[in-house]
Each structure stands twice: as structure tokens, then as C-alpha cells.
């Protein structure tokens, strides 16, 4: 497989261009024949979207890079399984969200191990270091220096994984309900329900910032 890592290192900020259906179908067929130049073009077209989604869900640059590498490795190996019933980007989003879920599970296991280690007796100084921070500044202060954006990202990251996915796909990747349902392998009704619930939770947590 062509080295995706080089594309990741050389990527520039911004969204990938959107290929036409005809170009995408031609590239997929060429990839199935083993055309590496065609695969490099597919990576070029979809890399920013895949990396961007992984980063929004994982909030870690290195983890997002590794996930994007895995996504395109899976794409290269299983391009023959893509039936063309949806956009290739939707199929790639599905691979991405599945890989992110696997990483979330590993992160939870690491947190549990860390939590177990923190259950040991601590000195008073250690205990103070774990005390909650002072109350955050008011809404006006938070608006400075992009802190609203930081608060929004933190609030999204605090949502359950199912809600994080739909928020990222709907409001950051601008996918339709149909596309999200296809990417996540669930019904449109489930997508709408999760989006409504996520909106409600975000209003509860940061509504005071948004007015």
C-alpha cells in the first residue's frame, strides 16, 4: 500500500475537495485493479475528512494520525467490499467511527488501571493536588481567547460516544441524516433521537456560554 503516513505529514489544514460520483467510481475500479496511483488520489481526496473526524472524536493528534493510517489500510485491503451503494466518504466514515470506538475502549481500560493505582493511600499533598480547581470565570471572561470554542469541544468530548459521533458527523462534517445512519449502521430515527439528546445535553452544560 502507498505510504499514507507521508500524506499525513504533508497535509495542509482545510477540507479535502469533493470528488464527483464519476471520478470516485473510476478511482474505486482502478484501486480494485491494484492501481496505486488511483489509491493515492483517493487518499488525497478523503484524508482531511478522515483525519478531521478522528481528531474531533479522539482529541489527540497522534491518535488521530494512527487512526487515519488504519482507515486507509482497511480501505486498501477491503476496497473490493465497497459496493458503491453510498458515497465512498460514507464508507470511510463508518470505518473511522468503528476504529475510534476501539480506541475509546482501550482508553477506558487505561483509565480503569490508572484509577486503581490512585486508590492507594495518598499524602495530604497528593490529595490536595487532586482537589477540583477554583470556580471558572463568568461568561464574559470565557468568551476571551477562544475559550468558548474550548468549552464547546470539552462539552462534546464529555458526551457519551454515541452522541459524540452524531454531533461530529452532523454539525462538523455536514452529513445528512441518511448519510449518518449509513455511516453508523443504525436507523434514521436513532440518528435524530441521538442528535436531539446531544443538543439537550450541550444546552445543559454550556448554554450559559451561548446565551
Q: Give the uncertain stretches in residue-range form.
A: 122-135, 141-145
CATH H-level homologous superfamily name of the largest domain: RNA polymerase sigma factor, region 2, helix turn helix motif
- Which CATH C-level class of the largest domain is it? Mainly Alpha
Number of helices: 11
Brief characterization of the structure:
This protein is an all-alpha fold and 211 residues long. It has eleven helices and no strands.
Walkthrough of the structure:
This protein is an all-alpha fold and 211 residues long. It folds into two domains: 4-100, Rna Polymerase Sigma Factor, Chain: A (Orthogonal Bundle); 138-211, Arc Repressor Mutant, subunit A (Orthogonal Bundle), CATH 1.10.10. The chain has helices at residues 4-10, 21-32, 36-58, 61-78, 88-118, 124-129, 139-142, 147-157, 161-172, 177-184, 188-210. Helix 2 crosses helix 3, helix 3 packs across helix 5 (88-118) and helix 10 (177-184) crosses helix 11. The longest helix has 31 residues, at 88-118. It is globular, with a radius of gyration of 20 Å. Mean pLDDT is 81; it is low at 122-135 and 141-145.
Amino acid at each position: 500500500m502507498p505510504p499514507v503516513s507521508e500524506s499525513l505529514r504533508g497535509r495542509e489544514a482545510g477540507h479535502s475537495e469533493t470528488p464527483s460520483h464519476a471520478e470516485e467510481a473510476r478511482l474505486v475500479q482502478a484501486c480494485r485493479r491494484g492501481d496505486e496511483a488511483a489509491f493515492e488520489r483517493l487518499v488525497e481526496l478523503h484524508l482531511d475528512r478522515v483525519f478531521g473526524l478522528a481528531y474531533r472524536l479522539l482529541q489527540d493528534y497522534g491518535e488521530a494520525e494512527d487512526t487515519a493510517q488504519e482507515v486507509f489500510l482497511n480501505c486498501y485491503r477491503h476496497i473490493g467490499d465497497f459496493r458503491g451503494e453510498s458515497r465512498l466518504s460514507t464508507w470511510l466514515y463508518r470505518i473511522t467511527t468503528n476504529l475510534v470506538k476501539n480506541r475509546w475502549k482501550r482508553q477506558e481500560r487505561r483509565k480503569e488501571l490508572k484509577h486503581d493505582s490512585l486508590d492507594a493511600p495518598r499524602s495530604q499533598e497528593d490529595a490536595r493536588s487532586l482537589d477540583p480547581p477554583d470556580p471558572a470565570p463568568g461568561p464574559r471572561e470565557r468568551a476571551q481567547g477562544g475559550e468558548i470554542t474550548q468549552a464547546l469541544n470539552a462539552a462534546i468530548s464529555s458526551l457519551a460516544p454515541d452522541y459524540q459521533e452524531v454531533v461530529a458527523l452532523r454539525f462538523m462534517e455536514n452529513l445528512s441524516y441518511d448519510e449518518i445512519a449509513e455511516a453508523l449502521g443504525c436507523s434514521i430515527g436513532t440518528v435524530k433521537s441521538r442528535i436531539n439528546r446531544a443538543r439537550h445535553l450541550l444546552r445543559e452544560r454550556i448554554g450559559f456560554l451561548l446565551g
